[in-house]
Amino acid sequence: MTREQLRVGVAGCGSIARQVHLPLLQRRRDVKLVAVADSDGEALAEAVRRNRGAQPYASIEEMLSEAGLDAVVVALPPALHSSAARAVFEAGLHLYLEKPMAATLDDGAAVMRAWRSSGRVGVMGFNCRANPLHLRLRELMRAGRAGTTVYIQTFLASAARSLPEWKRQRASGGGVLLDLGVHHIDLIRFLTGCRITGVRASVTSRTSEQDTALLELQMEGGIGGHTFVSLAAAEGDHVEVHGDLARLAVARYTSLDVHVTDNPGRGFGVVGRVLRRAGAVRYLARAVAARRSPLREPGYAVLLDRFIRAGLTGVAPLDVPDIADGFAATAVVVAAELSLTTGQMETPTAFSEFPQQLLQATP
After folding, report:
1. Number of neighbouring beta carbons within 10 Å of residue 300
2. What's the CATH number of domain 128-295, 1.20.1740.10, 1.10.8.80, 3.30.360.10, 3.40.718.10?
3. Dihedral through CA 71, CA 77, CA 80, CA 84, nearest 10?
4. Full-model pTM
5. What is the mean pLDDT of each run of 10 residues along the chain (363 residues)?
6. In this structure, which topology does domain 6-126+301-317 adopt according to CATH?
7. CB–CB of 75/17 below 8 Å?
8. CA gap 88, 82 in Å, rounded
């Protein structure tokens, strides 16, 4: 049975909720923003001021027991994600969980068990895979435009800025691997349709603990990869896919379309490149709209829309990152951190209680 409105609560009133989730929810007629929760009194008061009608709660537990919700968006510090997610599922509600899914494998496994037992929708906030440019890139890869994928390289960085204390310490869920790394780990799985079978990392601390990292990746099918992520470098978000026929490249903040570079002697040479660049102009309106999206990222709205529609209809959303995707990304991060000690390529592990098909990359 389809509902007319989804009663939603938001747990966590930090910058991501104030800039992205709350404004997007408020704009929708099919959502009633019922409640907001945060232990920080100032953040809570600011959220209520900007979202009149939302009732304030000092904790997610209090909100879950009193607000009469259908669904919850959790945007708390990562160290609280596991307990909050489990509480939402145990209350029989749908969950939209900001990344990372959990800070440890044990916490991730607990969320997985709660999700599977609940029968409710669980969506991860991996907005990169919902970006139109990345969807176009995957479309070209699936169509064989690059040929057989041999290597994938990604770069994701934000300029150094003041960070909340929890983001500065790995123990509290901070560090670049949990903050940015999980985004591209998930994106690589999404683009290739392959599991990451090995990872080795090097990590440095420039302005805060573990704020810059380089990952060496091995994937099914013999695909190799590297991912560079930093909270202290010039801002950028780039993906390059190298196949045996062509290289496909996209820059999320500047590209109009996927840039295709054929191997020498293939395609139409200079003329083909000019025609492709001219054809990209048709995506100009989409690019302008993307720049005007919250934090210049249209993927947030796409994922929230699919989550809300699933909550209203009771039909699980298709082609969205779910809790299993969050767990798989966490497993890669944990393996990368283990490699810092061993110096070896480490295999991301999953618990035997979860069927392997549940942890496969999105088909």
Report:
1. 21
2. 3.30.360.10
3. 0
4. 0.91
5. 85 94 95 97 94 95 97 96 98 97 94 96 96 96 96 95 84 90 98 96 94 97 97 96 96 93 64 51 60 72 96 88 96 96 92 66 54
6. Rossmann fold (3.40.50)
7. yes
8. 10
